[in-house]
Amino acid sequence: YPVRTYATRDDITSPETNFLQWNSRCDDGLLYFVTPRGWSLPYPGPMILDSHGELVWTHHFDNGFGGQAYDFKVQRYQDEEYLTFWLGDDRVRGHGAGYYYMLNSSYAVVHRVGAANGLAADLHEFLITPDGTALMTMYEVVERDVTTLRSFDSNEPNDVDPNGVWDCIFQEIAIDSGRLIFEWRASDYLEINETYHNIESAGTLSDPFDWFHINSIDKDELGNYLISVRYTHSILYIDGVTGDIIWSLGGKSNDFMDVSDGFAINFAWQHDARFHDINTFPNLYTPPPARAGYTTQLLTVASINGTDSDYTVRVIQSYDNPKAVRSSSQGSMQILPQAGDDPKVLVGYGLNAVWTEFEADGTVLCDVHFGAETSWERGDVQSYRVHKFSWKGYPSTHPVAEISDDDEEIYVSWNGATEVVDWILQCSESDTNDELAWEDVVRVRKEGFETVIPISVDIAQSRFLRIIAIGRGERRITHGVSETIDHRVVSD
């Protein structure tokens, strides 16, 4: 796993991102949000990178389970922007038990959100709605007859507690109070033979069978829910009052006629299904002729048209990585709106350390690897999803400065500070508490996470050094003063 290291922060590394393809349209002022983790990372955590793959912020949360974060993104709650992500125990392969964390613009944890009814929040989804509620997944071991899928031998030690499955649940809760608003359980609405997952030796209470596997949730303006179900190869639309399944796209109970020669419903093991307004694609999508009683929606790359009993689905566009990356787990697809034009599309490849940014028509703009191709499908380094958002960070920490061993350079960084434009190196020979004693000696443009400032012979002879962060409009940024370096002590 190739990484960048930093003189100012020996506790931090970031991926050595490799842009196999680059287009300036990817430099759009947004930042990439990733969660590198895997066998190659001793200190994983949520991470923000700029449009060139340079580190902006990261932090390892020592939670007792390795600190691996999932589902990292920016979300709005009560008119403020927050960083949100999951931390917990992910040692049960494929899901987890923990909490969702919400950090403010100073990177302080403001909310820790858990599930209701004594359940533990799963890692797959935490989506904040405009109503101030959160959608989240959870998994629970329950008894369920699986004898249609396998038989048990009471004489076998591993079969003494038969008929156990992981039930999949999603909840909508009020973030401010934890009040449960809605709960849905897969076992209440579907038969276990809907699964495509091979049960093998699972299906006991000690080794439950993961037959369903929700990996994303969304909610529309009608109050209904959309869930992606990995092991039934289906996307379900669920009534937000009764919990009944309104329709199923794909799977054994598919309700749709595919007008794309089977391409629209032959997906399997899918991840990250979302609603998108059809107007997001003003040029790419041409709606079918209007028909009385029909409505039109857009589901990622599929257009769904229909009445209660007659649905059709067709593919609008597919997005293919230049190296034909195929990930066996995880992944994401994000629509990035562009004013007056079709959006860009960002695809993260989950288990494989790749993300690709596309034009709406499928043209590749940027193709980025943050792990070797030889590591694909091995789990050496991966990111559950990859997102792109606008974000302004104002750390409550201070910049960190470090002088090189040869006394010819000084390094400076400030983890999470997004608004720094320039760094000013100051020196003083006297009282460091007197602001008038400090003299500006070098001003440089901020470059990447860690900026290198050359030190001249004259500066090297100064007693005290410090660095000041300057923002737009020549504004000195709050907390933007490094600790004072006593150059005589350093030199000695």
UniProtKB/TrEMBL annotation:
<dbReference type="Pfam" id="PF14269">
    <property type="entry name" value="Arylsulfotran_2"/>
</dbReference>
<dbReference type="InterPro" id="IPR053143">
    <property type="entry name" value="Arylsulfate_ST"/>
</dbReference>
<dbReference type="InterPro" id="IPR039535">
    <property type="entry name" value="ASST-like"/>
</dbReference>
<protein>
    <recommendedName>
        <fullName>ASST-domain-containing protein</fullName>
    </recommendedName>
</protein>
